[in-house]
Design a protein that fits this description.
about 40% helix, 2 strands, Herpes Virus-1, mainly alpha, 4 helices, about 110 residues
Amino acid sequence: MDYSRFDHIGSSSSSDDDDAPLPPRHPPPAVRDDLEDYFRRLDERRSRSEPADAAVALPCAAAHAFHSECVRGALAASVHCPLCRVDVRSLVVSAAAPSDGPLLAN
């Protein structure tokens, strides 16, 4: 098999065309209009929904805070903090347990 067509790959010689900067790329007008419309609607939806400061802090050591709707979805899928992977359910159960000592009598 003849591989001579690949001989120029990796050569240090460069032409003037290789050093020319590429023109900036812009999305087509229809795509740009769709994106602007999407972000406008997203901003409107955010302004109608919960205030931006509505956050829920999880009981993990770092007290990671999340948007309340986002953390509800994450905790419905898994009982672990999305960032540090600590079992949040066990922390809630241990915090709710009475601290009077063991329940078993000697």
